[in-house]
Amino acid sequence: MGDNWMVAPDGDIEFLPLGTPKFIGWENIAQSLAFQCRFNGHVTRFYSVAEHSLRVAKRILMDHEDLSINPLLYLVALLHDAGETIIGDITSPIKRKTFFLNDKGEMVTPVQVEDVWLPTILHYADIQSRDGIYRSKLGVMSAPKEIVDAIVKIADYKMLVSEKRAMIPDCTRPWSIERTHAAYSGEVFWPEESMETIKNRFLTNLCTAIDVMQNGGILCLDDI
Length: 224
Hints:
By secondary structure, the protein is mainly alpha-helical.
């Protein structure tokens, strides 16, 4: 790690000043997310950001399998934590109190850094975010950003509750999120898959969803 650069897993050195993000490739994103453990490792087994993202995206697909724009929904869900490729998976209590200096000397939060970088990532997945609309580059699919983000956020919160109950079973102290969101029924977290398996599944599902969206098709559970 240098002052304003980082080494990606494939050996590339990328210039990444905060506030001016640069796309570093799907392989690097999948590698980073698959090898980062959620909850700072305070879990009963290794559980990566990539696996979390795959589970959130799959649940959304299960709930919206007949929706014509479901490939777009799936991609936004799959990539919703991709900003953690740069800043890491910071636990919520710390994230709320952390600030960075961007290249202009301005104080920015981790969420602001992720929000700047996510449109760049979605752009390379052929999704444009403009005027409050998510739209595929070829114009075959579009949806209000506010609605899509709300769907992803609800699924993210419900998966968080599911993960807490499965991965941190000795935690009897309730989280505030549990008062507003129920865990997913029937979510199974075993057997554990290897980091490399999760990485490859993330990449495969990503490419499949992009291809289906570009062709104006509907993504099916059998596809992923």
